[in-house]
Amino acid sequence: MRDIRGDLRDRADRLEKQINAENSQFDVMLQLRTKRDGDLQQLRAQLQLVNKLLEFAARHDNVRANLAARIAVAEVAETSIRKSIEIRPLILWRFPNRPPSQ
């Protein structure tokens, strides 16, 4: 009967090399996954920051539009008051006994 110890040794060496290769690939995949997870976490944080900035910009635009509308109303009111002040002396001059309107 033939001695198969050498063949078994060769087979065991090949299997050990394959196992080591698979372990190396697994380690590389773990490193890549860890790097990817870190990159994803950083991208999510950046996305959250951008969303907050967009929210702030939208609020700022709303405040600015609201303020512009209020300024326009105040300008109209001021113009109306100035016109009424200009007209009032004329009314008092024409009708001196008339009490000032409120």
Describe this structure in words.
The protein is mainly alpha-helical. It has one helix at 5-94. The chain is rod-shaped. The longest helix is centred in the middle third of the chain and has 90 residues, at 5-94. The protein has one helix and no strands.
Topology of this protein?
Layout: H1 5-94
Q: What is the SS-derived class?
A: mainly alpha
Strand content: under 5%
Shape: rod-shaped
The N- to C-terminal Cα distance equals 128 Å
Overall pLDDT confidence = 88
| Main sheet: strands, sense, barrel | none
Low-confidence stretches: none
Helix content: over 70%
Would you report the number of β strands? 0
DSSP summary: helix tally: 1
The sequence of SSEs as H and E is H
Radius of gyration: 43 Å
